[in-house]
Amino acid sequence: MAAKEDAELEELIRNAGAEPEEEEEGGSLDLTTLLMVARKSLPWMLLLIVLGVTASWLFLRYTPPLYKAASTLKIDEKSEAGVLLGDIGQAAEQKQTLNKLSGEIELIKSDIIYRRLKDSLALDVNYYVQGTVLESELYNLSPIRVEYKAGKGALFNQKIGFQLLENDRFRLQLPNGGTETGELSYGQPIEAAGFTLQVYKTPQHANADPEANYSFVINDDGTVNGYLNQNLAVEIVNPDASTISIAFTDHNPVKARDIVNKIDSVYLVEKLLRKQETMARATNYIDKQIDINDNKLGQAESNMQDFVRRSRVFDVKSEASLVTNQLTAQELEQEQLQEQADMLAELARLIEQERLTDREDGDVFQTIPALSTIKDGQLTQRIIELSDLQLDLSQLLKSYQETTTAVKLRRSEIANVKSIIRELLRKNQQLVRRQLAKMAEKKADLEAKLGGLPEKQTEQARLARPLGLYEKYNMLMMDKKIEYGISMAGITADFQILSPATVPSVPISPVKLMVYAIGLAAGIVLGLGLIAVRYLMHNTVTNIRELERNTSASVLGVIPTYDKEKMAVSKLVVDRNPKSAISESIRSIRTNLEFISTSKKKRLISITSTISGEGKTFVTVNLAGIIAASDQRVVILDLDMRKPKVNLAFDAENVQGVSTILIEKHTWQECIQHTSIPTLDFISAGPTPPNPSELILSARFDELIKSLHEQYDVVIIDTPPVGLVTDGILIMRKADVPIYIVRANYSKKSFLKNINKLIRANGFTKLTTILNDAQTTGGYGYGYGYGYGYGYGQGYYEDPGVAPKGLLSRLRKRFS
């Protein structure tokens, strides 16, 4: 609609011979207008800031705080492979160090720790109380304790209401439809919601509020695990120092602290159990080896005793000793090769199993200690790789199906590694068999050589060799057993709690300062946006500086807003308020007129505007009244014959007037009407003619003006708006002082370009302007008023010395 009105206005202006110029694009910033808009928008900006801060307060009020408790652990994990298996074990330990901390994090977040945690803390039942705004969890503060047994169809994760009654009685409100039970006693079994419940009083029951709304929720394992997974965070703090952080977030700070400290405790227990299990396995292996060796040692001792009783031989010759030593070394090496062959066969059998080790950390050296005796480093590396792949596959199968790509890919990798291990085992077995064959040939040679010695010496040496070997091996195993016994006696966990969790005093969310800062920033941004929008949409003249800057016409003066009374139409007010600001401003305009037309005693003044409603008639009658008050005879001609208003300003009739004079129906003397001011008369427009422009162009109009000049000093013509019809331009050409009215906060800035057009196109060098309805700012010059509706609904400026009444009025005046 606004675009349509602007288009119609431009068309009317073109018809009037004054086509407006196109507005310049990308105009510079108008600092005065911007400051005016900012000042008018200040209350709204303050309101937006208050709303932003209020929204922040409401957010903090209705958002439960979230607390975070944390502890720091130092992990000193060591692999027992390094103790049992020497250098090979140390190499494996160094390889596993890279994944050590990640493995510990997975252990802390595993179901193993969760099960121990749920057994230590009662996390399956939560107790709540409804506050004024938020519901709070009563961790360790509940007046009751609930024990339950779940039956078929138990309603887990559903809130069950609890109401305290007198005489140690209570009532439950069940979740299925909100039904209530009757009065119940503490300790008695209750069948409700699929549970067998027993409710007991706690020490807090004595101080419980009987009017409060209590409730409890029984959570299933999945919900508890999900709650722990969601709120538990385990992170590596410093990989070089092997430190990790265990943090837990919850709306209850005490609960968060207890959970973190309990996780530290159950993790300690789990680590001790794992170490004890490892030690126990190693000890069992040593015991089995000792039993086997004891049998062999006993048999060797029996054979030696039989030989001694039978032959009674105790010395051997030097040559026999030399051969015997060679055979002993040969047989020891042959036995080692045989053990290696047996171990390779055992490895070949283990490789075909689904998994080499059942340990969570995947340490294959703990499961197969003899693996360290393999001299083929590539085979050892491949076996470790196979163990790691099988452990990864086990973890994948917990989350994926057999048909998933990740599982298939891992099984393919396992198959490839197994194929490589089989080939390496086959080559090692061939090598061992060849070495055994060579050893057998060499042993046969030595035995043949020894056969030349006395038969008793040979038999004695043959029996002494296994006896010494078994004794040495038995002593080695006994030393290891004692060593592990001492280790188990002083076993400790391989981590230290550097800083245990404490009760957090400040929530991590929401952060009050940040929330208030966001609310304040949002209010400021919205306020600035409001100022920018209002500035960009501001397209009306607001002050005299804009009028002077955008027009080449001189400014006669400024007429302030008059709000002493509301008027339906323009009225003569200067006679009733001669000392008011509006009267003074129009006197200033009268003085300026004297400077413009000093050479003429008789003056013809025309007053026009761009469109209707800019105060043209109001300025006409009041300017005429001020001039008439200076003892000059003044007459007002209402030439706005299409929409006459002058007669309305004086509460007179419009039966005859200018139109009837120009058609020679009446004389001007017959149409003269007098006012309350003796020297001020007016002639109304008369009945609306079909051809106002032709009447104005007639010679009769010039004769009328000439006749009026003979009787009056000043003739003031109220012309039609030049932006709507051409009559005003015709009259302005005849006038000594053409005046153009611009109304503050009503006339558009594009109207000022129309004034410049009129000056250039018609040569109106004496064209002057008046800024009408400008609101004063008290001591700071003229500002910008709120304007007025049709017929000056808001009126004009009040009498000086009248202060606004009331705080709201003073604030409104101050901000405006």
Tell me about this structure.
It is a single chain. With 816 residues, the protein is α/β, with parallel strands linked by helices. The protein has four domains: 2-63 and 511-536, no CATH class; 69-271, no CATH class; 318-452, no CATH class; 544-815, Rossmann fold (3-Layer(aba) Sandwich). It contains 25 helices and 21 strands. It has an eight-stranded mixed sheet, with helices on both faces. The protein has a six-stranded antiparallel sheet with strand order 3-2-10-5-6-7, with no helix packed on it. Helix 8 runs antiparallel to helix 13 (455-489), helix 9 (318-351) crosses helix 13 (455-489) and helix 16 crosses helix 17 (616-628). The longest helix is centred in the middle third of the chain and has 59 residues, at 253-311. It is elongated, with a radius of gyration of 55 Å. The two termini are 29 Å apart. 30% of the residues are buried.
